[in-house]
Design a protein that fits this description.
By secondary structure, the chain is mainly β. Helix content is 10%, strand content 43%. The chain has nine helices and 83 strands. It is elongated.
Length: 1061
């Protein structure tokens, strides 16, 4: 037995569900009925309330009325029966929306009200009218005398409402000014002008506020939250419903409320519904304060309502741009990547953006959460990381490692903020070999600067005496010691006054290069601390270095011929050293491995070695050149030649390399021998295995259901070094555990690596079908492999299905199209979740399937309007845009959802249609056809999986406020170049099916579009498709749906053609 919003109370047969009787009231029935023998005759009576203000008592056997009693408003609560006065007879207690609790006695003649008491409001809280009383006391200046009363008479309430509106004070900001450090807010409070003064700069909180009325100041700090509302956001604290004009809107607990003003009145916006007077929901809202950006400091549970069970658990650290919190910060409402709900406020912390560079000053680790010890990766002293955010309360940074791109949290004590300052550019020379450090705060070496090297600097560390050096794409730090600034000198001839040692750096202990003889001609280039950096002409042996400035003169000396000859002649003496370093330092050269071949050639003689060549024998098979040109080598000079060589695949063998140097005039070094062992390249050969485990074990990843993706990487080939594995998951998946990119230092031959990723699919995307791609790359040898699999295939391998999974077939048989056919367009509309109507089961899944078929199989550019996007406004706009682009093209339109009629013509029902199915809010087929035909398309095919009888796909009425409809399908103005396919005929219905997980019509239609080309002419002909629609009819009949009979109308012989390639 139950009541309905169609105004009837129904009694059903418990065995077969048939209607025994029904009783009509004057309005819808929100109350649940109570059964009991209220008149003592030994038979059961039915007692229930209706929105028409009456309490009814009926005969339970036949539904005939015994009596009814009128209350002051509609009855939303359910009656309670019990022997309250212990007289052996049942009494009735029921609450009415007039604010009273009624106590009835009943007999055969009727029901009698024994007493009634005011109980506050329709739900019995008392808060609303206590607020009215306090408002009355404020206006009369008697707030100290005010005390809450248990109830008010209606006469008292009406008197209060005449003097003061609205009953509950709602303050909305209209003007702000700052005066003497306080924020003064002026606006209106009902019909009273007010001024609120508040020292707290955040005006969106309820705090110690003073209210000025008629020049008198009232301190309102003692008022509980909710009595004065200073907020732009709130949430619904309990399920409620609001009647706006002729619509009744049900609002679940936890729904977010946007508060705004219009013409001095306060309104609420909930979801996309605007214009709700705030006083209609003010007793069931809790203000929310925007506290700005936050991070979760540990694992959080997201709930649709603060005290409800978790929707799902988020096991990762996230940054949320805005958190809306209750005044006590106990709960906060957040939205993250489509997931919305409430979390515990104590698990959130406010964050500040911080884009600093941080130097790691001690070994530490990147943590998953700001508060906790779940390590992601290690960080070592000397590394540099980029900060993203900072939590002042926890003194923790969110950082990213630039090398690995891993993100996580690091404690402030383990890092030091890097701040740089610019300095005028200057060039320095190193007085000795110096170290370059990875950090100015940790002496960890990242490179070196050789003695005598020139370094130009223009940046320093702000709080440490280090220069910033950019070298080979890395930022390193040079300590400001053993460095001398140099100055540019005028290059002109100078001569040595005596024998002098040429040194690498400008100091007495500088490494000697060679001795320059008296009268040697030189060219000065730089000066530093009394030393001169010179260039020695080739005729004097060449070279560069530092000598004392006092040893030079600008006056050309008179040089004897014998001395001049000694200065300009000499014999070179060459020596050579050679080495090979392999990439993995195991001493064995492997195919595709990079090796460094290094030769050092030194001239230890007194003359210039001109046009020196290094010659190598027996290295050709390894890719080592047989000669390397070095050029002139001055006396005392050493040249280092390096060649990085990538070895070929086939190089196996033992090699003896012979290396020597030779000058132009035949001066040669001794030959050096290198013995090396080489092996052929063995490529790694990767394979991927996977399994998806869902929480309930039914092998289907459902909305908000936690699931695990387990991936096993197998190496069936040679050893793989530095292997990067990237798993490309759809962006909408919420990763709760693990990550999508890994770098393994090695995977040996026949070795394996396991990856586990925990994820949740938000409800909005639960029916989406995607390939998941796994990319594997060896970073050193650039060996790549790619694999793909489906997110929702059965676990543990394929299972045999009576009805094939068409989504799986599409994903495994068709890839993403690279291009679309230019002469075809398609529009897919699917509405499963309506705003005011019951759901249309599987319509979202139907629409996604059809979109994939149009795009992947037929390569037709498809525009999709599914669920939230399938509003009246968006559908009309999209139809208009596509129609203008339809000239000379084939047009395909598919719709799945509720259907209705407009002037006896089939019509589609947008998501935001009202409960009474207003004709102005639905779109009939003739309107759609007319929009396109005026632009002369080549063909127009319309497919609808809906019935137009006012029933859903489950066979239920979609709205109680509409009349049965009459459909005349032949009124569709189908053009000669048009086809119309529908899920059922004029007198039938359309059904969905849990086994197929689709609408029956759409499932078999899709089969026809995929497999229907029997004669292999790359066309789906009308007669071929009809066979599949017949299968749909037969399947529906087997399921007990004799009234589903799919239709296909139109004279065109071909429904759709497959692309040529």
């Amino acid at each position: 037995m139950f009541g309905s919003w169609d105004n009837y109370l129904y009694a059903l047969n418990g065995e077969d569900g048939s209607v025994l009787w029904k009783f009509k009231t004057g309005d819808y029935i929100y109350s649940s009925p109570a059964l009991g023998d209220i008149d003592g005759d030994g038979k059961l009576e039915v007692v229930f309330g209706s929105w028409d203000n009456y309490l009814y008592a009926l005969n339970a056997e036949d539904g005939s009325i015994l009596w009814k009693v009128k209350t002051g408003n509609g009855i939303a609560s359910s009656p309670a029966l019990g022997d309250l006065d212990h007289d052996g007879k049942l009494e009735i207690a029921v609450a009415s929306r007039d604010g009273y609790l009624y106590y009835f006695e009943a007999n055969k003649r009727g029901g009698r009200v024994v007493w009634s008491r005011w109980h506050g409001d329709a739900y019995g809280t008392g808060a609303y009218w206590n607020a009215v009383l306090f408002a009355k006391a404020l206006l009369e200046g008697k707030e100290e005398e005010w005390r809450p009363k248990p109830y008010l008479s209606m006469a008292e309430v009406k008197e209060i409402l005449k003097k003061w509106k609205p009953a509950l004070p709602i303050y909305t900001l209209t003007e702000i000014e700052t005066k003497e450090g306080e924020r003064i807010h002026r606006g209106s409070w009902g019909e009273v002008d007010i001024t609120l003064t508040q020292k707290d700069k955040n005006i969106k909180v309820i705090g110690d506020i003073k209210l000025s009325i008629g020049g008198k100041i009232y301190n309102l700090s003692e008022i509980k939250k909710g009595k004065i509302l200073i907020a732009s956001k709130a949430y619904i604290t309990q399920p409620t419903q609001v009647r706006i004009k002729d619509k009744v809107i049900f609002i679940p607990a936890g729904e977010l409320v946007q508060i705004y003003t219009r013409k001095g009145k306060a309104y609420a916006k909930i979801r996309n519904i605007e214009g709700i007077p705030l006083e209609k929901i003010q007793n069931v809202i809790e203000p929310l304060q925007d506290i700005g950006k936050v991070a979760n400091i540990e694992k959080i549970e997201i709930k649709p309502f603060p005290t409800s069970k978790p929707l799902f658990t988020l096991d990762e650290s996230i940054i949320v741009d805005k958190a809306l919190c209750t005044s006590d910060k106990k709960y906060c409402y957040i939205s993250f990547e489509g997931i919305k709900g409430f979390v515990e406020g104590k698990k959130l912390a406010k964050v500040q953006e911080n884009k600093s560079l941080l130097s790691v000053v001690k070994n530490t680790s990147i943590q998953k959460y700001p508060k906790g010890k779940e390590k992601i990766t290690d960080l070592y002293a000397g590394e540099t990381v980029k900060a993203k955010y900072y939590i002042p309360s926890l003194k923790t940074y969110l950082v990213e490692n630039p090398q690995t791109k891993e993100k996580g949290w690091v404690e402030e004590g383990a890092v030091h903020k890097l701040v740089f300052k610019s300095i005028p550019p200057k060039t320095l020379v190193a007085l000795k070999d110096l170290n370059l450090y990875l950090s100015p705060y940790v002496e960890k070496i990242g490179g070196t600067v050789s003695e005598g090297s020139f370094i130009t600097v223009n940046k320093k560390v702000a709080d440490a005496d280090y220069f910033v050096i950019e070298k080979e794409g890395k930022r390193l730090y040079l300590k400001n010691e053993d460095l001398v600034e140099i100055t540019q000198l005028t290059p002109q001839k100078m001569w040595l006054l005596e024998d002098e040692t040429l040194r690498k750096s400008p100091r007495e202990k500088g490494t000697p290069i060679r001795v320059l003889l008296k009268y040697t001609e030189v060219i000065p280039i730089y000066g530093a601390d009394g030393w001169v950096y010179i260039k020695v002409p080739l005729k004097y042996g060449g070279g560069r270095g530092w000598i004392k400035g006092v040893a030079l003169t600008f006056e050309k000396p008179n040089i004897p011929k014998q001395k001049l000859a000694k200065l300009t002649q000499g014999i070179p003496k060459l020596s050579v050293e050679a080495s090979i370093k392999d990439e993995n330092n195991d001493g064995i050269l492997e195919g595709r491995e990079k090796i460094t071949f290094e030769v050092k050639v030194k001239n230890q003689g007194s003359g210039i070695a001109r046009s020196v060549v290094v010659k190598i024998k027996n290295g050709e098979k390894l890719g080592i050149p047989n000669r390397i040109d070095v050029g002139n080598i001055l006396p005392g000079e050493e040249r280092i030649i390096k060649r990085v060589i990538t070895l070929k695949d086939k190089i196996a063998g033992n090699y003896t390399l012979e290396v020597y140097a030779e000058s132009q005039k035949g001066f040669m070094s001794e030959a050096k021998q290198l013995n090396v062992v080489a092996v052929d390249y063995q490529p790694p050969r990767f394979n991927v295995k996977f399994v998806i485990k869902d929480e309930n074990g039914d092998n289907i990843v459902e909305a908000q259901e936690p699931a695990k993706l387990l991936v096993k990487i197998l190496n069936l080939g040679g050893e793989a070094k530095n292997v990067r594995v990237k798993i490309n998951l759809p962006e909408y998946l919420v990763i709760q555990k693990g990550k999508t990119e890994y770098v393994f230092s090695e995977i040996p031959k026949n070795g394996e690596k396991d990856i586990e990723i925990g994820f949740v699919v938000p409800g909005k995307y639960a029916e989406e079908i995607h390939n998941i791609k796994v990319e594997i790359q060896t970073l050193e040898k650039r060996e790549e492999a790619r694999y793909s699999f489906r997110v929702n295939r059965p676990l543990g391998g394929e299972t045999e299905e009576k009805w094939p999974n068409l989504e799986r077939y599409l994903a495994t048989s068709y890839g993403t199209p690279r291009e679309f056919q230019e002469d075809k367009i398609a529009l897919v509309i699917g509405v499963e979740n309506y705003v005011y109507l019951p759901p249309s089961k599987y319509s979202k899944r139907d629409a996604i399937l059809m979109k994939e078929i149009f795009e992947k199989v037929y390569r037709i550019k498809t525009y999709a309007l599914i669920n939230e996007n399938a509003t009246l406004n968006l559908i009309e706009k999209t139809l208009k845009i596509l129609a203008r682009n339809a000239e000379g093209k084939e047009v395909y339109i598919y719709y799945s959802g509720h259907g209705y009629v407009k002037g006896k013509i089939p019509a589609i029902v947008p998501r935001d249609v009202s409960t009474n199915l207003d004709p102005t809010e639905i779109i009939d087929m003739n309107t759609i056809i007319r929009k396109f035909t005026q632009y002369k398309p080549k063909k127009i095919v319309i497919i609808t999986d809906a019935c137009y009888s006012g029933y859903s796909k489950e066979g239920e009425r979609i709205s109680s406020g509409v009349r049965p409809v009459v459909l005349v399908e032949n009124k569709i103005n189908l053009p000669k170049n048009g086809l119309y396919a529908s899920a059922t005929g004029p007198k039938g219905k359309s059904y969905s099916d849990d086994e197929l997980k689709h609408g029956i019509f759409t499932y078999f239609l899709a089969q026809g579009l995929l497999f229907g080309d029997e004669n292999k002419d790359k066309k789906i002909e009308k007669e071929e498709l009809k066979k599949y629609l017949k299968k749909a009819e037969e399947y529906a009949r087997k399921k007990g749906h004799d009234d589903q009979k799919p239709q296909l109308r139109g004279k065109l012989p071909v429904v759709i053609e497959l692309p040529n390639k």
